[in-house]
Amino acid sequence: MSSRERILARIRAAVAGAPDVEIPRAYRGAGDLPDTGLVDLFARRVGDYRAVVHVVPETGAAERISASLTARGARRIVVPGGFPEPWPSVPGVELMTDGPGLGAAELDTVDGVLTTCAVAVAETGTIVLDAGPGQGRRALTLVPDYHLCVVRADQIVAGVPDAVARLVPDRPLTWISGPSATSDIELNRIEGVHGPRTLEVLVVT
Amino acid sequence: MTRTFLGLPGPRPGAAGEGFPARAARAVRDSQLRFNLRKATRTIRARRAGVVSELPDWAELRRAGKAIKDHTLRNLDAYLLQLEEAVTRAGGHVHWAADAAEANRIVAGLVRATGETEVVKVKSMVTQETGLNEALLAEGITAYETDLAELIVQLGDDRPSHILVPAIHRNRAEIREVFAGRMAGWGRPAPEDLTDDPPALAEAARVHLRERFLATKVAISGANFAVAETGTMVVLESEGNGRMCLTLPETLITVVGIEKLVPTWRDLEVFLQLLPRSSTGERMNPYTSMWTGATEGQEFHLVLLDNGRTGVLADETGRQALRCIRCSACLNVCPVYERVGGHAYGSVYPGPIGAILTPQLHGMESELERSLPYASSLCGACYEVCPVAIDIPAVLVHLRAKTRHPVAERAGMAAAGWVLERSGRLARMQRLGGRLRRLAPERLPGPMGGWSDTRDVPELPAESFRAWWERTDGGRR
Lengths: 205, 477
Hints:
The complex is a heterodimer.
Chain A: H1 3-15, H2 38-48, E1 52-56, H3 61-72, E2 76-79, E3 94-97, H4 104-107, E4 112-115, E5 119-121, E6 126-129, E7 146-152, E8 156-157, H5 160-166, E9 173-176, E10 181-182, E11 190-191, E12 198-204
Chain B: H1 20-28, H2 31-53, H3 58-74, H4 76-89, E1 93-97, H5 100-114, E2 118-121, H6 125-129, H7 132-138, E3 142-145, H8 148-155, H9 172-186, H10 198-215, E4 218-221, E5 225-227, E6 232-237, H11 241-247, E7 251-257, E8 261-262, H12 268-279, E9 287-292, E10 299-305, H13 309-313, H14 329-333, H15 335-340, H16 351-362, H17 367-371, H18 381-385, H19 392-400, H20 407-421, H21 423-435, H22 449-453, H23 465-472
């Protein structure tokens, strides 16, 4: 008998005659949380993780991106395919597209990455990337030390159940809540280990 | 008070290994350890309490989490098959391992097939349980731990003492010593001027591991959840070392215990709220990765591990331990854990959950495993904070009943049973006791002395309530 058959047989013997269980879902599910004031709540909660947050009207987005990249002192920034055109032009900053030449080692030499996101969660201050347009493959938002993420106000949902309902499971998903951090030294949260040490979120209303 | 009585069964002739009391007695003498643990557990307890109280529906989430896990366990055979099908459909390969040795054999074989001799690892409880690193080393494969706390443990040739923060027993100064002394032996050395400032320590870990992440072709991980419906794996982490391992290598091998399943995608809406708030006390952990099958050109292998879990599943009371999502809230709140630390439990699963998991997974052959169900005052704090409502005290009591108790205790219980069986017998014994009450000792004789060393022996009354009632007709005479 294979291990597969043996494990399955043991499970069947172990639970034989046990009653099944109804799942009570009395918690606040998708659509149950109020959807007002989400931009403010989201911005506050992202800020709690010591990420940098800006809320700007759509007309001011390009200017804000430009100001952030300049302030950062960045020279080479990766922008995944599908990022809304036209791309801002930032003096002194090269905006590069992803491509076959951009292996992990090369990615380690760029100054940052500029992306969109798939969904954002107000209650937890989370952005979720699903490798869709403007987000790119997962390594892009991981290896560079700086991540500037543009969130449209209509992408912000109230709670975790709303985000789960909006996302598609078979895409590679990365939920990001603040910059890379650790609690491993005396259980205090310290920002900045292996992922981007600076997360900047731009909410466009 | 002459010594602390822990309510443990006496040593049995021929019992192998060292029990919890001896380990605990050693641990509590380490004042540095107690200081480190006290500081860390207090910090995390306050943080958890804060973020849990933010959610008005915490109790409902907890009820749902418990029920989802119970329902999964009841139908585990069907959900495992569904998961296997979904992962295979998405281009992944599924392997089944009945025990630790088989899991290690499968993983070593998969690594060998790639031709690589180095792997990076995401922190995983299950590969610690199987002793994977040692098994790989025997095959000439070096496994590099990449979680900061696991790195501290690996470099320091130490053992993990906490589920979430394996180096919780180390403070910043000790961590600096480990990094400064040992990093060079494993790769890039620590900077000359390394201080014990936590951000500097995190930076040293970042630099030490960076090249390894960029170059290593095989990664090994566990998973927090595996969704049967979609075949999706879920890993929650903080540092980004998990993302590095899950994303950059060409081959990813994920080992999960069969109890890690949840039936549907939607179920994640419950656990993504319960787990981060219970474990690190955050509204959300910095990074959560979800992937389904072979992703972005990667080769993906899933190893499903039993290793005693089906035995636990067969125990009606004990099976609730399989609901555990390894958040470690029960460790952080436990008065015993806070004082003795994780090493005293002699297992990769320390604390209250370890006290019920270890004896069930490994059997109760050794002195250590028999003593673990007594490593508790049964205060119930662990049950209260458990996000999937595992009644740990009930399982502890259940497991205590499975071990053989000392002769004196068994004789005492048998005598009490005989007396309490008939009301006439009880009345006669009470009259006898009342007459001899002046002779009652302050310290109980023999092995029962341990009980009275830490408690006052209650005074025997001159007559029982029933006798008084009969004599006075309820006080009317």
